[in-house]
Write a structure and sequence with these properties.
Chains A, B: It comes from Glycine max (Soybean). The structure is a homodimer. Helices cover 41% and strands 20% of the residues of chain A. The first copy, chain A, is of the alpha/beta class. In chain A, α3 packs parallel to α5. Chains A and B meet through α1 and β5 of A and α1 and β5 of B.
Chain lengths: 175, 175
Protein backbone atom coordinates (compact mmCIF):
# COMPACT_ATOMS: atom_id res chain seq x y z
CA UNK A 1 0.00 0.00 0.00
CA UNK A 2 1.06 3.67 0.19
CA UNK A 3 4.76 4.07 1.02
CA UNK A 4 5.06 7.81 1.57
CA UNK A 5 3.38 9.59 4.46
CA UNK A 6 0.13 11.44 3.77
CA UNK A 7 0.81 15.16 3.99
CA UNK A 8 -2.17 17.12 5.30
CA UNK A 9 -2.08 20.90 5.17
CA UNK A 10 -4.30 22.55 7.77
CA UNK A 11 -5.05 26.26 7.40
CA UNK A 12 -5.42 27.84 10.85
CA UNK A 13 -6.29 31.29 12.11
CA UNK A 14 -6.82 33.19 15.32
CA UNK A 15 -10.11 33.54 17.07
CA UNK A 16 -11.88 36.82 16.46
CA UNK A 17 -13.49 36.64 19.87
CA UNK A 18 -10.88 36.41 22.55
CA UNK A 19 -8.15 38.91 23.22
CA UNK A 20 -5.27 36.49 23.03
CA UNK A 21 -4.06 34.37 20.11
CA UNK A 22 -6.26 31.37 20.68
CA UNK A 23 -7.10 29.35 17.60
CA UNK A 24 -10.48 30.10 16.08
CA UNK A 25 -13.29 27.68 16.88
CA UNK A 26 -13.33 26.41 13.30
CA UNK A 27 -9.52 25.94 13.12
CA UNK A 28 -9.61 23.92 16.29
CA UNK A 29 -12.56 21.90 14.98
CA UNK A 30 -10.76 21.19 11.70
CA UNK A 31 -7.66 20.03 13.57
CA UNK A 32 -9.59 17.83 16.02
CA UNK A 33 -11.56 16.27 13.17
CA UNK A 34 -8.37 15.50 11.22
CA UNK A 35 -6.80 13.78 14.22
CA UNK A 36 -9.91 11.89 15.35
CA UNK A 37 -11.28 10.79 11.99
CA UNK A 38 -8.30 10.55 9.64
CA UNK A 39 -4.99 10.22 11.48
CA UNK A 40 -6.44 8.25 14.40
CA UNK A 41 -3.66 6.13 15.97
CA UNK A 42 -1.76 5.79 12.68
CA UNK A 43 0.40 8.76 13.67
CA UNK A 44 3.54 7.72 11.81
CA UNK A 45 1.69 7.69 8.47
CA UNK A 46 0.77 11.38 8.49
CA UNK A 47 2.56 14.73 8.48
CA UNK A 48 0.63 17.86 9.34
CA UNK A 49 1.52 21.21 7.80
CA UNK A 50 0.02 24.22 9.59
CA UNK A 51 -0.28 27.38 7.57
CA UNK A 52 -1.35 30.60 9.26
CA UNK A 53 -2.00 33.55 6.97
CA UNK A 54 -1.96 36.92 8.67
CA UNK A 55 -4.09 39.64 7.13
CA UNK A 56 -2.29 42.94 7.80
CA UNK A 57 -5.45 45.05 8.10
CA UNK A 58 -7.75 42.76 9.99
CA UNK A 59 -5.41 40.98 12.32
CA UNK A 60 -5.44 42.98 15.51
CA UNK A 61 -8.91 44.15 16.50
CA UNK A 62 -7.23 46.01 19.35
CA UNK A 63 -5.66 48.32 16.79
CA UNK A 64 -8.27 50.73 18.09
CA UNK A 65 -5.87 51.29 20.97
CA UNK A 66 -2.88 51.96 18.75
CA UNK A 67 -1.64 55.45 18.08
CA UNK A 68 0.92 55.62 15.34
CA UNK A 69 3.33 58.47 15.80
CA UNK A 70 6.64 57.13 14.57
CA UNK A 71 8.04 54.36 12.35
CA UNK A 72 8.80 52.44 15.55
CA UNK A 73 5.09 52.16 16.30
CA UNK A 74 4.64 50.19 13.11
CA UNK A 75 7.66 48.09 13.92
CA UNK A 76 6.17 47.31 17.32
CA UNK A 77 2.88 46.37 15.71
CA UNK A 78 4.59 44.00 13.29
CA UNK A 79 6.50 42.51 16.17
CA UNK A 80 3.30 42.03 18.14
CA UNK A 81 1.59 40.37 15.16
CA UNK A 82 4.53 38.06 14.77
CA UNK A 83 4.32 37.03 18.43
CA UNK A 84 0.57 36.42 18.17
CA UNK A 85 1.07 34.22 15.09
CA UNK A 86 3.82 32.23 16.76
CA UNK A 87 1.63 31.67 19.83
CA UNK A 88 -1.17 30.40 17.61
CA UNK A 89 1.06 27.90 15.85
CA UNK A 90 2.54 26.84 19.18
CA UNK A 91 -0.90 25.56 20.22
CA UNK A 92 -1.10 23.21 17.23
CA UNK A 93 2.53 22.11 17.43
CA UNK A 94 2.12 21.27 21.11
CA UNK A 95 -1.01 19.24 20.35
CA UNK A 96 0.81 17.31 17.61
CA UNK A 97 3.76 16.72 19.91
CA UNK A 98 1.47 15.22 22.57
CA UNK A 99 -0.19 12.99 19.97
CA UNK A 100 3.09 12.02 18.36
CA UNK A 101 2.48 13.19 14.81
CA UNK A 102 5.22 14.97 12.87
CA UNK A 103 4.32 18.52 11.89
CA UNK A 104 5.63 21.84 10.71
CA UNK A 105 4.09 25.29 10.78
CA UNK A 106 4.71 28.65 9.20
CA UNK A 107 3.25 32.13 8.84
CA UNK A 108 2.53 33.98 5.61
CA UNK A 109 0.99 37.38 4.93
CA UNK A 110 -1.69 38.33 2.47
CA UNK A 111 -5.18 37.32 1.43
CA UNK A 112 -5.72 33.94 3.14
CA UNK A 113 -7.55 32.24 0.25
CA UNK A 114 -4.95 33.30 -2.31
CA UNK A 115 -2.00 32.45 -0.08
CA UNK A 116 -3.42 29.03 0.86
CA UNK A 117 -3.92 28.08 -2.79
CA UNK A 118 -0.44 29.34 -3.62
CA UNK A 119 1.11 27.27 -0.82
CA UNK A 120 -0.81 24.19 -1.98
CA UNK A 121 0.71 24.68 -5.40
CA UNK A 122 4.18 25.06 -3.91
CA UNK A 123 4.10 22.22 -1.38
CA UNK A 124 1.69 19.76 -3.03
CA UNK A 125 0.05 18.28 0.08
CA UNK A 126 -2.20 15.25 -0.36
CA UNK A 127 -5.07 17.01 1.33
CA UNK A 128 -6.00 20.51 2.50
CA UNK A 129 -8.22 20.85 5.57
CA UNK A 130 -9.92 24.18 6.26
CA UNK A 131 -12.37 25.08 8.97
CA UNK A 132 -15.60 26.76 8.00
CA UNK A 133 -18.07 28.81 10.00
CA UNK A 134 -20.91 27.22 8.07
CA UNK A 135 -22.48 30.58 7.27
CA UNK A 136 -25.70 30.87 5.29
CA UNK A 137 -25.78 32.29 1.75
CA UNK A 138 -26.79 35.76 2.94
CA UNK A 139 -23.91 36.11 5.39
CA UNK A 140 -21.45 34.74 2.84
CA UNK A 141 -22.06 37.66 0.50
CA UNK A 142 -20.53 40.02 3.03
CA UNK A 143 -17.79 38.02 4.66
CA UNK A 144 -16.71 35.71 1.82
CA UNK A 145 -15.58 32.21 2.53
CA UNK A 146 -12.05 30.96 2.34
CA UNK A 147 -13.20 27.35 2.27
CA UNK A 148 -15.35 27.73 -0.84
CA UNK A 149 -12.59 29.50 -2.75
CA UNK A 150 -10.05 26.85 -1.76
CA UNK A 151 -12.42 24.05 -2.68
CA UNK A 152 -12.74 25.51 -6.15
CA UNK A 153 -9.16 26.59 -6.77
CA UNK A 154 -6.70 24.61 -4.65
CA UNK A 155 -4.80 22.02 -6.66
CA UNK A 156 -5.39 19.19 -4.20
CA UNK A 157 -8.41 17.57 -2.54
CA UNK A 158 -9.99 19.88 0.03
CA UNK A 159 -12.06 19.08 3.12
CA UNK A 160 -13.97 21.85 4.75
CA UNK A 161 -14.97 21.11 8.34
CA UNK A 162 -18.04 23.03 9.41
CA UNK A 163 -18.20 24.37 12.93
CA UNK A 164 -20.57 22.43 15.18
CA UNK A 165 -23.87 24.25 15.74
CA UNK A 166 -23.42 24.18 19.54
CA UNK A 167 -20.06 25.92 19.21
CA UNK A 168 -21.36 28.83 17.13
CA UNK A 169 -20.94 32.12 19.01
CA UNK A 170 -23.75 34.64 19.38
CA UNK A 171 -22.65 36.43 16.20
CA UNK A 172 -22.01 33.61 13.71
CA UNK A 173 -19.51 35.77 11.82
CA UNK A 174 -17.29 35.54 14.92
CA UNK A 175 -15.11 32.46 15.18
CA UNK B 1 -8.15 8.92 20.68
CA UNK B 2 -11.16 8.02 18.54
CA UNK B 3 -12.86 4.79 19.66
CA UNK B 4 -15.37 4.24 16.88
CA UNK B 5 -14.35 3.43 13.34
CA UNK B 6 -14.35 6.22 10.77
CA UNK B 7 -17.22 5.64 8.35
CA UNK B 8 -16.44 6.84 4.84
CA UNK B 9 -19.23 6.93 2.27
CA UNK B 10 -17.99 6.67 -1.31
CA UNK B 11 -20.40 7.51 -4.12
CA UNK B 12 -19.63 5.36 -7.16
CA UNK B 13 -21.01 5.11 -10.66
CA UNK B 14 -20.48 3.23 -13.89
CA UNK B 15 -18.20 4.31 -16.66
CA UNK B 16 -19.92 6.05 -19.53
CA UNK B 17 -17.29 4.76 -21.94
CA UNK B 18 -17.16 1.02 -21.82
CA UNK B 19 -20.00 -1.34 -22.56
CA UNK B 20 -19.82 -3.28 -19.33
CA UNK B 21 -20.37 -2.07 -15.77
CA UNK B 22 -16.84 -0.98 -15.02
CA UNK B 23 -16.49 1.77 -12.46
CA UNK B 24 -16.07 5.24 -13.89
CA UNK B 25 -12.53 6.64 -13.97
CA UNK B 26 -13.40 9.19 -11.30
CA UNK B 27 -15.08 6.61 -8.99
CA UNK B 28 -12.04 4.40 -9.19
CA UNK B 29 -9.76 7.38 -8.57
CA UNK B 30 -11.79 8.42 -5.52
CA UNK B 31 -11.63 4.91 -4.11
CA UNK B 32 -7.88 4.51 -4.74
CA UNK B 33 -7.18 7.89 -3.17
CA UNK B 34 -9.23 7.01 -0.07
CA UNK B 35 -7.34 3.77 0.40
CA UNK B 36 -3.85 5.13 -0.36
CA UNK B 37 -4.05 8.46 1.44
CA UNK B 38 -6.55 8.02 4.27
CA UNK B 39 -7.10 4.38 5.20
CA UNK B 40 -3.51 3.28 4.40
CA UNK B 41 -2.66 0.21 6.48
CA UNK B 42 -4.99 1.21 9.32
CA UNK B 43 -7.71 -1.00 7.80
CA UNK B 44 -9.48 -1.93 11.03
CA UNK B 45 -10.17 1.74 11.83
CA UNK B 46 -12.31 2.43 8.74
CA UNK B 47 -15.58 1.22 7.26
CA UNK B 48 -16.39 2.02 3.66
CA UNK B 49 -19.97 2.52 2.51
CA UNK B 50 -20.44 2.36 -1.27
CA UNK B 51 -23.52 4.03 -2.63
CA UNK B 52 -24.42 3.63 -6.28
CA UNK B 53 -27.31 5.74 -7.53
CA UNK B 54 -28.88 4.59 -10.77
CA UNK B 55 -30.47 7.20 -12.97
CA UNK B 56 -33.38 5.50 -14.78
CA UNK B 57 -33.11 7.57 -17.96
CA UNK B 58 -29.39 7.84 -18.43
CA UNK B 59 -28.17 4.53 -17.19
CA UNK B 60 -28.02 2.35 -20.27
CA UNK B 61 -26.56 4.13 -23.25
CA UNK B 62 -27.41 1.02 -25.26
CA UNK B 63 -31.09 1.83 -24.78
CA UNK B 64 -30.84 2.90 -28.40
CA UNK B 65 -31.12 -0.80 -29.18
CA UNK B 66 -34.18 -1.35 -27.03
CA UNK B 67 -37.65 -1.60 -28.47
CA UNK B 68 -40.36 -1.49 -25.87
CA UNK B 69 -43.43 -3.45 -26.92
CA UNK B 70 -44.74 -5.00 -23.75
CA UNK B 71 -44.50 -4.53 -19.97
CA UNK B 72 -42.01 -7.39 -19.95
CA UNK B 73 -39.55 -5.30 -21.95
CA UNK B 74 -39.42 -2.81 -19.08
CA UNK B 75 -39.09 -5.61 -16.59
CA UNK B 76 -36.13 -6.99 -18.52
CA UNK B 77 -34.53 -3.56 -18.62
CA UNK B 78 -34.92 -3.14 -14.87
CA UNK B 79 -33.46 -6.58 -14.36
CA UNK B 80 -30.49 -5.72 -16.60
CA UNK B 81 -29.90 -2.43 -14.72
CA UNK B 82 -29.95 -4.29 -11.45
CA UNK B 83 -27.33 -6.75 -12.68
CA UNK B 84 -25.10 -3.93 -13.95
CA UNK B 85 -25.33 -2.14 -10.60
CA UNK B 86 -24.50 -5.30 -8.69
CA UNK B 87 -21.46 -5.94 -10.92
CA UNK B 88 -20.25 -2.39 -10.28
CA UNK B 89 -20.48 -2.77 -6.52
CA UNK B 90 -18.85 -6.18 -6.73
CA UNK B 91 -15.68 -4.50 -8.03
CA UNK B 92 -15.38 -2.27 -4.96
CA UNK B 93 -16.37 -4.99 -2.50
CA UNK B 94 -13.74 -7.33 -3.96
CA UNK B 95 -11.09 -4.61 -3.70
CA UNK B 96 -12.01 -3.98 -0.03
CA UNK B 97 -11.96 -7.68 0.68
CA UNK B 98 -8.42 -7.97 -0.74
CA UNK B 99 -7.27 -4.99 1.33
CA UNK B 100 -9.04 -6.19 4.45
CA UNK B 101 -11.32 -3.22 5.11
CA UNK B 102 -14.93 -3.75 6.19
CA UNK B 103 -17.46 -2.38 3.73
CA UNK B 104 -21.05 -2.43 2.63
CA UNK B 105 -22.69 -1.37 -0.61
CA UNK B 106 -26.15 -0.63 -1.88
CA UNK B 107 -28.05 0.70 -4.89
CA UNK B 108 -30.59 3.51 -4.93
CA UNK B 109 -32.54 5.12 -7.76
CA UNK B 110 -33.06 8.78 -8.51
CA UNK B 111 -31.10 11.96 -8.98
CA UNK B 112 -27.60 11.10 -7.72
CA UNK B 113 -26.89 14.39 -5.96
CA UNK B 114 -30.22 14.38 -4.12
CA UNK B 115 -30.03 10.72 -3.20
CA UNK B 116 -26.42 11.01 -1.96
CA UNK B 117 -27.30 13.94 0.32
CA UNK B 118 -30.36 12.07 1.56
CA UNK B 119 -28.30 8.97 2.37
CA UNK B 120 -25.72 11.11 4.19
CA UNK B 121 -28.53 12.47 6.34
CA UNK B 122 -29.83 8.98 7.02
CA UNK B 123 -26.52 7.20 7.71
CA UNK B 124 -24.39 10.05 9.09
CA UNK B 125 -20.97 8.97 7.76
CA UNK B 126 -17.90 10.84 9.02
CA UNK B 127 -16.86 11.70 5.49
CA UNK B 128 -18.28 11.58 1.97
CA UNK B 129 -15.88 10.98 -0.93
CA UNK B 130 -17.02 11.72 -4.47
CA UNK B 131 -15.08 11.54 -7.69
CA UNK B 132 -15.11 14.53 -9.99
CA UNK B 133 -14.32 14.86 -13.66
CA UNK B 134 -12.72 18.23 -12.96
CA UNK B 135 -14.66 19.95 -15.71
CA UNK B 136 -14.21 23.62 -16.50
CA UNK B 137 -16.91 26.21 -15.77
CA UNK B 138 -18.26 26.12 -19.34
CA UNK B 139 -18.76 22.36 -19.39
CA UNK B 140 -20.30 22.41 -15.93
CA UNK B 141 -23.20 24.53 -17.11
CA UNK B 142 -24.40 21.69 -19.29
CA UNK B 143 -23.58 18.58 -17.34
CA UNK B 144 -23.89 19.80 -13.75
CA UNK B 145 -21.65 18.45 -11.05
CA UNK B 146 -22.68 16.08 -8.34
CA UNK B 147 -19.57 16.90 -6.31
CA UNK B 148 -20.29 20.62 -6.06
CA UNK B 149 -23.89 20.04 -5.00
CA UNK B 150 -22.81 17.51 -2.36
CA UNK B 151 -20.08 19.80 -1.09
CA UNK B 152 -22.67 22.52 -0.51
CA UNK B 153 -25.56 20.43 0.78
CA UNK B 154 -24.36 17.17 2.34
CA UNK B 155 -24.48 17.23 6.13
CA UNK B 156 -20.96 15.87 6.60
CA UNK B 157 -17.47 16.80 5.40
CA UNK B 158 -17.03 16.12 1.69
CA UNK B 159 -13.90 15.40 -0.33
CA UNK B 160 -14.07 15.62 -4.06
CA UNK B 161 -11.27 13.77 -5.85
CA UNK B 162 -10.54 15.21 -9.25
CA UNK B 163 -9.66 12.85 -12.06
CA UNK B 164 -5.97 12.91 -12.99
CA UNK B 165 -5.31 14.86 -16.20
CA UNK B 166 -3.61 11.86 -17.83
CA UNK B 167 -6.71 9.73 -17.25
CA UNK B 168 -9.12 12.15 -18.90
CA UNK B 169 -10.73 10.58 -21.98
CA UNK B 170 -10.90 12.32 -25.34
CA UNK B 171 -14.30 13.80 -24.46
CA UNK B 172 -13.86 15.09 -20.89
CA UNK B 173 -17.59 14.69 -20.23
CA UNK B 174 -17.03 10.93 -20.52
CA UNK B 175 -15.83 9.18 -17.40
Amino acid sequence: MAEEVTRVMVAVNESSIKGYPHPSISSKGAFDWTINKIVRDNVSAFNLLFLHVQVPDEDGFDDMDSIFASPDDFKNMNQRDRIRGVHLLEYFINRCHEIGVVCQAWIMHGDPKEVICHEVKRLRPDLLVVGSRGLGPFQKVFVGTVSEFCWKHAECPVISIKRKPDETPQDPVDD
